[in-house]
Structure formats: C-alpha cells, structure tokens
Amino acid sequence: MTFKYLPHTADKKIHVVAKDLATAFGEAALAVYNIMVDINSIKPKEKGIFEIESESKNSLLYDFIDEIIFAIDTRGFIGCKVEHIKIDKIDDTYQLRAVFVGDNYSNYDTHGDVKAMTYNEMEIKEDNEIELTFVVDV
Predict the structure, then answer these.
(1) In 10 A of CB 61, how many CB atoms?
(2) For 23-56, what is each residue's pLDDT tens digit?
(3) How far apart are CA 100 and CA 113, in angstroms?
(4) pLDDT tens for residues 56-110?
C-alpha cells in the first residue's frame, strides 16, 4: 500500500504517493475503502467499473472518490484491488476508467463509514512521482 492517513480533526486526511497519476487514483480509492473495511479481508467476488469525466485533475479526483462512495451506498460494492485504471486527457477533459475487484459491503465487519469527499486540503503534486492529499468526511 502506498497510502497513509494523516492527522485531521473529525475527518480522514489521506496522502498517496505513486509512480503515476492512474496508480495514485487507484491507491486513493483503496485508502477510502480501507477506512470502512480492512481491504485485505475482502474477497474478490465481483467487479466494480467506474467511468468519470471532469475538467481538471482535482475535479476528477473529487468525482472519482465521490462515485466510489456512491457505489458503496447504492450497490454495496467495496473494492479490494485495482484490476485496471487509465486516465486520459482528451481536449479539455480528463477521462478515467477503472475496474476494481471486490465484494458486497454487507458481507464484512465495518470499522467506519465515509460520508463524502471534500475539496478541503486537496492537493495534487507532480514531480518525479505523484502525491495526492485529500480529506473525506467520516
């Protein structure tokens, strides 16, 4: 895992370091899943497919994590592994397609809920590696 949780009052602040943007987004999603259920305990029984378009990298991260949370709330899908993730920039739009393997959230003991994604303290740094920092409301 290349994510860690940073101190934050009442919410969860997540910091991800990865070799590229797509890997960083995948790790960000796994960090969110891991807040709710230990991802190492999740059985890979089904797939969750996510397709997102946004006008910036920050809004793409926001929309992606928001969709991850929505899938848990509506379909019960919680992922444990990234099968495929790709991010493209086409004209002025960033497009993400991700496939996760996982299971139904109700099959596991939970240790918290993620209520919402926020723009609070969101940062994407791109140097030799990608660093993402963001906060989710728990």
Answers:
(1) 27
(2) 999 999 999 999 999 999 999 999 999 999 999 9
(3) 19
(4) 999 999 999 999 999 999 999 999 999 999 999 999 999 999 999 999 999 999 9
Q: Count how many domains the chain has.
A: 1
Q: What is the CATH number of the domain that holds 111?
A: 3.55.10.10
Three-class DSSP category at 100: strand
Residue 133 contacts residue 123 (beta carbons within 8 Å): yes
Instruction: From residue 65, give the alpha-carbon distance in Å to each of 50, 56, 62, 91.
Output: 10, 14, 5, 23
Which residues, 6 or more positions from 77, have their beta carbon under 8 angstroms from its beta carbon? 46, 48, 71, 100, 102, 103, 104, 105
**Helical H segments across the chain, by residue range:** 21-36, 57-75
pTM: 0.93
End-to-end CA distance of the chain: 21
Locus of tokens 């991010």: 87
Domain that holds residue 130: 3-137
SS3 at position 43? coil
Tell me the one-letter amino acid at 7: P
